[in-house]
Amino acid sequence: MFDLTDRTALVTGAGQNIGSGIARALAAQGAIVHVNDIVAERAEAVAGSIRSAGDRAEAVPFDVTGIDAVAAAVDAIGAVDVLVNNAGNGGAGGMTLTPFHDLSPDAWSGIIDVNLYGVLNCCHAVLGGMVERGWGRIVTISSLAGTMGTRVGVTPYSAGKGGAMAFVRSLALENSRNGITANSIALGLMGTGTPTSLGDIARSIPAGRLGTPEDVGALCVYLSSDEASWVTAQTIHLDGGTSPT
Ligand SMILES: NC(=O)c1ccc[n+]([C@@H]2O[C@H](COP(=O)([O-])OP(=O)(O)OC[C@H]3O[C@@H](n4cnc5c(N)ncnc54)[C@H](O)[C@@H]3O)[C@@H](O)[C@H]2O)c1
Questions:
Q1: 136 phi and psi angles, rounded to 5 deg
Q2: How far, CA to CA in Å, does 4 sit from each of 137, 177, 217?
Q3: Which residues line ligand 1 (CB under 6 A)?
Q4: Handedness of CA 162, 84, 233, 92 (dihedral sign)
Q5: Ligand 1: which atom is nearest the Cα of residue 216?
Q6: Residue 57 bridge partners (DSSP)
Q7: How do residues 8-62 score in pLDDT, each as one tens digit?
Q8: Rounded to the nearest 5 degrees, what angle is found at the Cα of 63, between the Cα atoms of 154 and 214?
Q9: Interhelix angle 118-133/155-174, nearest 10 degrees
Q10: Of 199, 205, 204, which Cα lies nearest the Cα of 241?
Q11: Which stretches in the chain have pLDDT values below 70?
């Protein structure tokens, strides 16, 4: 089950932490994984370590906010069967905990660029090929900040993540007869990049622990598989029981 042999995957922001876990999990199921990151050395290191494990991966550094760079990279890859939109900023790893009234427009547009426009750019680049081939899987990594909201000063991040989830749902419905599924994963607090100031929130997770890249990788494998063809237009909360719905 969940065999991804010879599927071509693109995972954005996969040079560390959650994205690298997703890339490793897809590659371990047989996918040829294109490891994207804005920092080329990170993408190359992760792709190299996947190859060292005997699986298939290539580094494809680019900035997801640049629509021309994204389109050129996807053209160079050829067919992308599985897109995982993981690149993000301004979440637990980069959060400033700044209240909205103290933020500048530059600060919020930079966050929304990556978390929302980055998703639109990558989906736009891969979608035509998926429609032509009649098969595709799109998984977008989101956050409870975009569904429940949080009290810790991440308003533009919430806007970017919430907008991306709304976009994904409509994209899924628009393509539901094209053999393409599109889903979002709303993550709770992860063990990667969580500031110690969030320790109290971390202790309140019902499952009693922070999430791991392996938790996310496993769900991405399922959502990328043939077996998940009836799962589309969903936001799946992966949060150790944190969210009420
Ligand atoms: N860590 C958490 O607690 C948490 C919680 C909820 C959601 N998330 C989401 O999960 C995803 C991964 O989080 P993480 O903690 O691994 O983040 P991270 O900051 O550790 O890694 C993100 C990677 O994305 C890359 N990146 C940033 N901007 C990019 C761009 N414009 N183009 C290409 N690559 C870019 C970075 O270089 C980095 O390697 C993000 O979308 C984040 O918002 C994280």
A1: -170, 155
A2: 11, 21, 13
A3: 12-13, 15-19, 36-39, 42, 63-65, 86-89, 91-93, 114, 118, 141, 143, 187, 189-190, 192-194
A4: negative
A5: 10
A6: 33
A7: 999 999 999 999 999 999 999 999 999 999 999 999 999 999 999 999 999 999 9
A8: 65
A9: 10
A10: 205
A11: 91-96, 193-201, 245
Looking at the DSSP bridge assignments, the partners of residue 184 are: 140, 235
Token readout for 242 is 């944190």
- Residues with Cβ within 8 Å of residue 176, at least 6 apart in sequence: 232, 233
Report the C-alpha gap between 165 and 143 in whole angstroms. 9
**What would the DSSP string read from start to end of 110-172?**
HHHIIIIIHHHHHHHHHHHHHHHHT-EEEEEEEEGGGTT--SSS-HHHHHHHHHHHHHHHHHH
Tell me the domains of the chain and their CATH numbers: 8-238 (3.40.50.720)
Tokens of 24: 């490793």
CB neighbourhood size of 141 (10 A): 28
